[in-house]
Write a structure and sequence with these properties.
Elements: E1 2-5, E2 21-25, E3 28-32, H1 38-44, E4 54-56, H2 62-65, H3 68-76, E5 79-80, E6 83-84, E7 89-94, H4 95-109, H5 116-119, E8 120-125, E9 131-133, E10 136-142, E11 154-159, E12 164-167, H6 174-177, E13 187-193, H7 205-211, E14 220-223, H8 233-239, E15 242-243, E16 250-251
Parallel strand pairs: 3-4, 4-7, 7-8, 12-13, 13-14, 14-15
Antiparallel strand pairs: 1-2, 1-16, 2-3, 5-6, 9-10, 10-11, 11-12
The protein binds zinc ion (ZN) (2 copies).
C-alpha cells in the first residue's frame, strides 16, 4: 500500500490542507476522508476526482466530509462525446455515521428527480464486518464519543497478509476508543491524530506516548497536527515517533 497524505493539518489549518489521504492498494485508490480543502489538495497531489475508486468517511466534521458533495457531484456530471456518463461513487461508511451522512448529502442531492443513491453506492458496515478490497481487509470501527462527546465517528483498520495499519482518524480519548486491540506484532504503522498543544477533541502528544507501548512508538506517525510543527520536531525525534509530511508517500508492505 502506498499512502499519500493530501493534507496533514487540523480543521483550522492555514498552512496545510485537511488531513485526507489517498491509499493506493493494488490497482485501486481509496480516498480516506474528504474535507473542504479536497478540491485543491487532490490536484496538488496529481489526482482528479475521477481517479478515486472508493471513499471512506470517518465522521462528519468539515475537514473530513465537507468536500464529499462536490466530489460525488463532479463524478456524476461526467460527459463523453456529449453524452452524460455518470460515475457513481462507492462510499464505505460505518452504520452509525451513515444516517447522518445520508441526511447531509440528501439535503443537497435529492432533487430534480434524483436521490443520493444516484450519486453514491453506500457500503454500510458495523464493527465486525470486513470489506475485501484488493487483497486486504478493511474494518471500520466505531469511535463514537471518543473524539467529541455526542459525535458519531469511526476509525479504519487495514489488514493484509503481511501486516496491518491502524488509522483511527480523530480521537481524543485513546482508551475509550480501545485502539490497542488493533495493535500487534504485524502492525506496520499507526496514523495518529496528534496535537502538540491542549485540545479538547484531539489526542495530545503526551497522551499518545503514554497510551501506546514504547516498543511500538517507532510505528506511530503523527498527523492532523499544528501549523507550527517545526517547533515540535525535536520532541518528536526524542520520542522516536514519526510524522506524516504533506504529499510525501509512505509505502507499507501489507501484502
Ligand atoms: Zn479533523
Ligand atoms: Zn473531527
Amino acid at each position: 500500500m502506498k499512502l499519500i497524505p493530501l493534507g496533514v493539518g487540523g480543521a483550522f489549518t492555514e498552512r496545510f490542507y485537511h488531513n485526507n489521504y489517498v491509499a493506493e492498494i493494488g490497482t485501486k485508490k481509496l480516498l480516506i476522508d474528504a474535507g473542504t480543502t479536497l478540491r485543491e489538495s487532490m490536484k496538488k497531489a496529481g489526482y482528479s476526482y475521477v481517479d478515486i475508486d472508493s471513499v471512506w468517511i470517518s465522521h462528519l466534521h468539515f475537514d473530513h466530509a465537507g468536500g464529499l458533495e462536490e466530489l460525488v457531484m463532479q463524478r456524476f456530471w461526467q460527459f463523453k462525446d456529449g453524452q452524460h456518463t455518470p460515475i457513481k461513487t462507492p462510499v464505505f461508511v460505518h452504520q452509525k455515521v451513515y444516517s447522518q451522512l445520508r441526511k447531509l448529502l440528501s439535503a443537497a442531492l435529492d432533487n430534480q428527480g434524483r436521490t443520493v443513491d444516484d450519486f453514491c453506492a453506500f457500503t454500510v458496515v458495523n464493527d465486525q464486518d470486513i470489506i475485501h478490497f484488493e487483497g486486504v481487509e478493511l474494518q471500520i470501527f466505531d469511535t463514537t464519543n471518543s473524539h467529541a462527546k455526542g459525535l458519531v465517528s469511526s476509525g479504519l483498520f487495514i489488514k493484509g497478509p503481511l501486516g496491518n495499519v491502524l488509522f483511527p482518524s480523530d480521537v481524543k480519548d485513546l482508551h475509550k476508543a480501545n485502539l490497542l486491540r488493533f495493535v500487534n506484532d504485524d502492525t506496520l504503522a499507526i496514523f495518529q491524530d496528534t496535537s502538540f498543544t491542549f485540545n479538547g477533541v484531539h489526542a495530545q502528544f503526551k497522551d499518545v506516548l503514554a497510551y501506546y507501548p514504547k516498543e511500538i512508538h517507532s510505528s506511530i506517525y503523527a498527523m492532523h497536527y499544528n501549523d507550527n510543527i517545526e517547533d515540535y520536531l525535536q520532541e518528536i525525534e526524542r520520542a522516536g515517533i514519526q510524522y506524516v509530511k504533506q504529499r510525501e508517500p509512505i509505502t507499507l508492505p501489507l501484502k
